[in-house]
Amino acid sequence: MSFCLSRFAQRLAAPLLMAALAASGAALHAGESDHERARRALERGEVLPLRAVLEQVERTQQGQVLKIEFERDDGRYLYKIRLLQPDGRVAKLKVDAVDGRVLSVKRKGS
Questions:
Q1: Does domain 5-108 fall into CATH 3.10.450.40?
Q2: What is the distance between the alpha carbons of residues 35 and 21, in angstroms, rounded to a whole number?
Q3: Where are the chain's structural domains?
Q4: Which residues contact 31 (CB under 8 A, 6 or more apart)?
Q5: From the record, what ranges are coiled-coil (predicted)?
Q6: pLDDT tens-digit readout, 74-91
Q7: Is the model's pTM score more than 0.85?
Q8: What are the CA-CA distances from residue 68 to residues 48, 65, 103 (Å)?
Q9: How many angstroms separate the first and last alpha carbons of the chain?
Q10: CB-based contact 103:95 (threshold 8 Å)
């Protein structure tokens, strides 16, 4: 049974992103949370909304979102997304936050 990411995005993506962003990575600006950086980047038009990214991801990947992180790596904004796929494996995706392209997929598990 596969899980529809768009339904997940509609119900849980915002709270999940807020929790993931609040808990992850080093700050670009002292005291500024990942959530704040993501919000500011979105307001400046530098990144796509998470919902749009998840809709693009679901076109090529199936699974239940386990974790989402927002980072800036080598000057590039990224969403790092972990999916539990229907076969029980975990897929780690790096997604360009600017255009929603899946940059890499690594799979682990059974």
A1: yes
A2: 5
A3: 5-108
A4: none
A5: none
A6: 999 999 999 999 999 999
A7: no
A8: 14, 8, 15
A9: 17
A10: yes
